Amino acid sequence: MRTAPPPDVLQAIALAEAEAKKAKKDPRRSHKGAAALATPVANAKVRERKAAPATAPPKFSKAARRFYNENIKEHEPQRLAKVLAAAGVASRRTCEELIFQGKVTVNGSVCTAPQTKVDISKDSIYVNGNRISKKLPPKLYFAVNKPKGYICSCGEPKSIISLFDDYLKGWNKIQPGVPKPRLFTVGRLDVATSGLIIITNDGEFAQKLSHPSSNIMKEYVVTIDGPVHRNHLIAISEGTKIDGVKCIPDLVEPLDVQSNTKRTRIRIAVHEGRNHEVRELVQNAGLEVYALKRVRIGRFRLSPDLGIGKFVELKQTDLKSLEGKK
Ligand code: URA
Known about the structure:
Elements: H1 7-25, H2 31-35, H3 40-51, H4 62-71, E1 78-79, H5 80-86, H6 92-100, E2 104-106, E3 109-110, E4 117-118, E5 125-127, E6 130-131, E7 141-146, H7 165-169, H8 171-174, E8 184-185, E9 193-200, H9 203-210, E10 218-224, H10 230-238, E11 240-242, E12 245-247, E13 251-258, E14 263-270, H11 277-284, E15 289-297, E16 300-301, E17 311-313, H12 316-322
Parallel strand pairs: 9-15
Antiparallel strand pairs: 1-4, 2-3, 2-5, 5-6, 7-9, 7-17, 8-9, 10-14, 10-15, 11-12, 13-14, 15-16
Protein name: RNA-binding S4 domain-containing protein
Region (Disordered): 19-59
Family: Belongs to the pseudouridine synthase RsuA family.
């Protein structure tokens, strides 16, 4: 599979972009503008500029790379398993199993190699006898305010994905002819944890964001039923071993005492992303977690306006914030 855009395509895009920029800044540089130059000297200069050999290879701007990814790479033949996952058939791994089991045909022949390159818009693909649409669903990203008691796996009655039931039921009205997206969570929250979780149908994005190497900071508010002393905060700050790895939080901060309940809240930020990490840190300090809520991922904060069980679609700028970028 190609991992980088072909240099000739990027070069062409970069040169076209550079030309367009120059023409915008100085209309006389565009072909029409050059013809309008009055003096022969000026025309000679234009010819000189055109004839000058490129001294350095063009740098591929972010915009050029994005243009390539969105308009060219997406439409190049891709691995069969990846295409099936993007089409919403199942997870990439399940799609690979379906292919190995001989349940997938491409242009009338059984295909048992997940790495086979296919073009969804041209090839005729069937899974278990059902034809796969020639269109891919759009990539979608949502922030959800997870209620306590919901689980992150799909297909269970109290799955967090069931919060999208009405949205998906109305899909064919909003997007007629476009296959339904297969939504899943980016990473996990314990069943008893509430707050911010991301839902998408973009497997690559989900993997990038949830991989421990991304080191993305996540912030939680922990409620303790009772007082929290300095020694507790120190013990939490010192960290604990989880799965043999020492996890040290990036931030431990006491919040207000809730006067009506005598409950105490602590803000804790971590970047390891280990299972039950925050609960382990708190319990290791001799405290019992009464409630746990995630309030931030990267630079993206859960909006206080987003009600429990509600979701909001994310914009490109929100996706950058999730990755901790500006
Ligand atoms: N840490 C936990 O202990 N639980 C979660 O759900 C998330 C982080």
